[in-house]
């Protein structure tokens, strides 16, 4: 599809015109898929949503009927992690199926390069004959292309953090009167795309990135009644008394003071009411979108994926926010419904290790396309047929955002999580964390100093070293990623790391 046709579709959709002329239906791209057999794909992405905000993950204090229904219809994933738990990098992971050190994209580092974006799932789907749509927080910038509006047939995206006020999001203003809060406006956008795309002879991929429940907490007032006066059960690892065994390096970022700054210690119920109210609005939006799929008669050929860009630490261990490798920020909800799966309606839960790098290859396989060899993720489709096999043996969790002492690399397996906090000075020594997330999901016991866990520690160190080796071999040579191959190497002394402590000057890729 050429740029001219994309503009035609965008103008017609923005103007609320539902009939697309025959001249605009001509597909000028190379089509490798048949619209009658390729499924439609809906990818829904929350911002800062933790697993404990969803009923089907065990929280009886919250109301998420549509998310819970989606889990009953499809497969719920219990060990799904974002390989970087901050929005810009996580979105780059999702689009490209690669780890951050290969996307070269994060706050404090730099934008995505055009050649990296060229192998993203939206670009590859569109080249293969899919209609593509995006709304919400795009979350990154591509050098030379900006927000990549021209790479989508329907556009409702925005720069930066976007805004909770629909009227302040330029591409979404047409919905402001009926839906002044942005969350439901994205559902309205999605319904419009579904109606338009269902008339075409092409499958579609609708990607929506909600702003909610990102701070500053701004719930849609139409849902004020949902949690009014509600008291919420605190997690069993809530509060500073459960932070004593956590690495001192992790307390040097903004996450530690935000326990008090964001009033988790003094107004937990008030803060969580706002947080869960924002999630409730997304749940309503999910219901609106699924209802429209049914109304258009295409629900039985539309895959629905629901997840979040990272989790959220709402007072666990006495921290707030995200970024760090603890479970509350790194592990997130994931629910996938493929209407063609034989497991539907059986309430299957998948306990295999999966990550946000898996979405691009999964979406491409749904479309009948091969994943490019540069992708680190693997398709999750086999897990939708047999949830007990074919997950990752290990993955990386990355943080290179914020104060340097908080930068770290973590190795994840299905059972264990190992972090090497490499930084040391006259105030602290480099340290290790080893948690058994299967038997200790609240991360209350650091096994790194437990003599009975020495064999596990050595195994996880070896696995961690493998992840560092990949970083050294594959990291982009720009945007300050090369030096972390040295900083994260646990075999290199702190003295030898001194030349690498300062940020590298930006270098142009070849």
UniProtKB/TrEMBL annotation:
This is Mucin-desulfating sulfatase (N-acetylglucosamine-6-sulfatase). It comes from Rhodopirellula baltica WH47. It comes from the Bacteria. Gene3D superfamilies: Alkaline Phosphatase, subunit A (3.40.720.10). Pfam families: Sulfatase. Keywords: Signal. The lineage of its organism: Bacteria, Pseudomonadati, Planctomycetota, Planctomycetia, Pirellulales. Residues 1-24 form the signal peptide. Residues 39-368 form the Sulfatase N-terminal domain. InterPro entries: Alkaline_phosphatase_core_sf, Sulfatase_N.
